[in-house]
Amino acid sequence: MQYLRYIGKNLFIEKLSIKNISKKQKTPFYIYSENQIITNFLKFKNTFKKTNPLICFAAKSNSNLNILRVLGRLGAGADVVSGGELLKALKAGIKAKKIVFSGVGKTEEELKIAINKNILLINCESESEAKLVNSLAKKLRKKVSIGFRLNPNVDAKTHKNISTGKAENKFGLSIKSFKIFLKTINSLKNIKLDALSVHIGSQILNDAPFRKTLSVMSKLIKEVRLNLKYVDLGGGFGINYTNKEKPINLNKYSKHVENFSKKLDCKIIFEPGRSIIGNTGLLISKVQFIKKGANKNFIILDAGMNDFMRPALYDAFHQIIPVSKNAAKTKGKIEFVGPICESTCKFGIYKNYQKINENDFIAITNVGAYGSSLSSNYNTRPLIAEILINKNKFRYIRKKQNLLKLINS
């Protein structure tokens, strides 16, 4: 994050000291840089400026209403995967004709919302879903634009739990099945196939799987002679969670997308989430206790896996940095863990970490994507606050959930 730096010994986000904020706001809490969000979006847009795609932010990565509003003002659309996300995007001011609805198991209720709101596309993922959309559209006396999500059987070379484009994954329709379905689609009078959609996975750091997907899509579209308004190329662009990782070279990929778009004469849609919001957020937590173990010391934080699930869910690494630096070093290994009654409630092991004491504050980095959106009330813990920073001002974009309201609900 370019808006995160140490001034002297203290960590600042934009122009505000995190230590000072931590004294006013009870930990744990999420904190985001608004200017980093803006910078990331505009950089993505500029990278693909020759193609001029519709950029539909993947709301599942972070569905905070205020963050959606920031992106909506920049011209972003939204990729949603539930009726709730759809209604949130509309409430944030994102236009219906900039919303695409993805997901393998949309309910009748959700599809009715999408049809009545006249969104850009419902990206169907099965023959049964397309038939249901047609049936509902007929009852509502509408003709609905759909996309069809394909499963291109491309290995994205990412974590198995975030791979979505291989034959064994539940997402999309195989090319063989899609070709069979095309023979009957003309009988469905209340839907119109305006797009093909694809999404092969998340946290992808190499453009080779994307280029292979373009090749598969191009070959199929030409073979079956589809005349499409849109091709939705999904998202999945990775960021560098560690110093060893290098983010994907989107400049190189953009040239392939430009050629693809020109040859097929269609509008491109992207669904970036992590690459827009991932490096904009921190999870601030306090050291509750330090406990000696047989082989390492446990640094017990007040943030738990219910607040931040990615390490437990994906074995994900997120660098943990001190809010205030010092020159002293700890002896041996330490492990940052949380209070939840699960062995998976842990955040990372370090050697030669700086000296750390009880009541110190730490920051878990790069938590903007799939941080707050995956949080829960597990162990009957309230959802934590979220704060948005802009230069030297901060505002709450979600207040901490009231415990009494939680236990009485």
Features:
alpha/beta; nine-stranded mixed sheet; 409 residues; Lyase, Ornithine Decarboxylase, Chain A, domain 1; TIM Barrel; 21 strands; 25% strand; elongated; 2 domains; eight-stranded parallel beta barrel
Quick synopsis:
The protein is built from twelve helices and 21 strands.
Major sheet description: 9 strands, mixed
Query: Roughly how many Å apart are the termini?
Result: 38 Å
CATH hierarchy: architecture of the largest domain:
Alpha-Beta Barrel
Shape: elongated
Overall radius of gyration: 23 Å
Which oligomeric state applies? single chain
Fraction in helix: 25-40%
Mean of residue pLDDT values: 93
CATH secondary-structure class of the largest domain: Alpha Beta
- β-strand number: 21
Count of alpha/pi helices? 12
Please mark out the parts with pLDDT under 50 across 5 or more consecutive residues, or reply none. Answer: 161-165
Classify the fold: give the CATH topology of the largest domain: TIM Barrel
Q: Beta-strand level of the residues, as a percent range?
A: 15-25%
- Could you name the CATH homologous superfamily of the largest domain? Alanine racemase
Q: Please tell me the total number of domains.
A: 2
- Report the structural category: alpha/beta
